[in-house]
């Protein structure tokens, strides 16, 4: 038997770093011998995703197909992490003709058929992705919110929280050691609610915001103007720029983290901030109601402003932590069955 994991090697500035690292660690802990096929062959700083470079995406897809043809034996279990593979139907045709036994699985961190997804407007991609999904024996998603949007195909969609360990983060609950009122750790992109965050910043000139550097220099029509306005605000500090803090420092020294992403299946940036000592205020949609108490959810800019003021002023009275989670249940379910 050959156990295979197809995953991003390393995407800088992305939760995929956390996902891949934890999966490999959990596989080692449960004693599964694994053949790893990295989808991305070099370290790439994630800004708008490798799909924006058709040469990179095509070459990596071909690499995965060629490697799978090389390593597969008589009995195989192949788990794909995040990226769909447009050439999988061709691989399936090959193994079907050769009568090779294969079990397919996939962990989804996004999908074109989930509302608000970054790649939802790429119409060419959806048929490939639905074809990829239709071949899966097991699909794993981290929230009920995500599960409801998957096409009606033969496989089971399994809901398991993804792995996250709060113990890996320095926590600061000292109000005297909080230099920022609000942290926005999400990259500046259309699927991350950039327009909403700008409205909140404008509505709270007396509050000090620290925001992500990722995508802040975007020139994408519409998004670029939002980012320029954010950079011009006197109450905004940008992570990593000039005298700005590092990413981890921004989380540790902020009172409140806001999350209003248009597409969110698990919320790694949010969880990192909570683990570092931030109190969350989140939009009442996507995966947030599944993990965040109702009195921390908002439905409008006005409600977000009200909650930020409440929790920033009363900090750390209402702070709470989220439980640690692991990929082990997913890995045991797939490779152990």
TrEMBL record:
Gene3D superfamilies for this protein: Glycogen Phosphorylase B
Domain of life: Bacteria
GO molecular function, one term: transferase activity
Keyword Phosphoprotein annotated: no
UniProt key word Ubl conjugation: no
Protein name: Glycosyltransferase
Keywords of this entry: Transferase
């Amino acid at each position: 038997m050959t156990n295979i994991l197809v995953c991003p090697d390393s995407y800088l500035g992305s939760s995929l770093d956390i996902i891949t690292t934890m999966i490999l660690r959990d596989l080692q802990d449960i004693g599964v011998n694994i053949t790893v096929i990295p989808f991305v062959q070099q370290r790439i700083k994630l800004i708008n995703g490798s799909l924006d470079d058709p040469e990179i995406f095509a070459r990596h897809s071909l690499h995965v197909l060629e490697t799978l043809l090389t390593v597969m034996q008589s009995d195989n279990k192949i788990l794909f992490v995040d990226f769909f593979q447009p050439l999988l139907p061709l691989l399936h045709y090959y193994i079907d003709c050769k009568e090779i036994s294969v079990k397919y699985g996939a962990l989804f961190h996004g999908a074109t058929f989930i509302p608000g997804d970054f790649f939802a407007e790429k119409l060419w991609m959806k048929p490939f992705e639905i074809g990829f999904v239709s071949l899966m024996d097991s699909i794993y998603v981290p929230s009920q919110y995500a599960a409801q949007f998957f096409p009606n195909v033969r496989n089971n969609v399994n809901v398991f929280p993804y792995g996250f360990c709060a113990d890996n983060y320095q926590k600061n609950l000292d109000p005297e050691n909080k230099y920022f009122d609000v942290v926005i750790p999400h990259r500046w992109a259309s699927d991350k609610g950039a327009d909403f965050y700008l409205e909140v910043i404008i509505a709270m000139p007396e509050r000090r915001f620290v925001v992500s550097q990722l995508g802040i220099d975007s020139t994408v029509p519409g998004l670029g103007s939002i980012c320029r306005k954010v950079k011009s605000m006197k109450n905004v500090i940008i992570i990593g720029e000039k005298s700005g803090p590092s990413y981890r420092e921004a989380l540790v020294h902020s009172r409140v983290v806001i999350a209003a992403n248009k597409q969110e299946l698990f919320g790694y940036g949010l969880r990192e901030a909570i683990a570092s000592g931030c109190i969350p205020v989140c939009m009442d949609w996507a995966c947030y109601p599944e993990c965040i108490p109702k009195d921390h959810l908002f439905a409008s800019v006005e409600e977000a402003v009200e909650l930020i003021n409440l929790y920033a002023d009363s900090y750390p009275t209402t702070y709470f932590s989220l439980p640690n989670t692991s990929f082990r249940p997913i890995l045991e379910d797939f490779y152990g069955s």
